[in-house]
Amino acid sequence: MPRREIELYTEDDVVVCDFIKAEIRFLKSGRRIDLAEERNEYCLREIAYFFDLALDGAANINSIPYANSIIGFVQGE
């Protein structure tokens, strides 16, 4: 079975963000958060936004410097 998760280790808990199940689990405390967003609706909005940018010339809400800073953050820089 495929896994698409991010695991965050903190002093107090281990947090697992499961993208397939659309949930966040806190392993030590047992807390669980269901992400209410319907996945198909979210993906459709993302695709529509992409085509608005690519085909209709809509303004991008994220600047290139901001996008680069996010990449750096994700890479731990």
What is the number of helices? 2
**What best-fitting shape do the alpha-carbon axes yield?**
flat
Order of helices and strands: EEEEHH
Radius of gyration: 17 Å
What does this structure look like?
The structure is a single chain. This protein is an alpha+beta fold. It has one domain (5-74). The protein is built from 2 helices and 4 strands. The chain has a 4-stranded antiparallel β-sheet, with no helix packed on it. The two termini are 32 Å apart. The model has no long low-confidence stretch (mean pLDDT 85).
Brief overview:
Helix content is 38%, strand content 22%. The protein is built from two helices and four strands.
Could you outline the blueprint of secondary structure elements for this entry?
Elements: E1 5-9, E2 14-18, E3 23-26, E4 32-34, H1 39-56, H2 64-74
Antiparallel strand pairs: 1-2, 2-3, 3-4
Features:
flat, 4 strands, 2 helices, alpha+beta, four-stranded antiparallel beta sheet, single chain, 77 residues
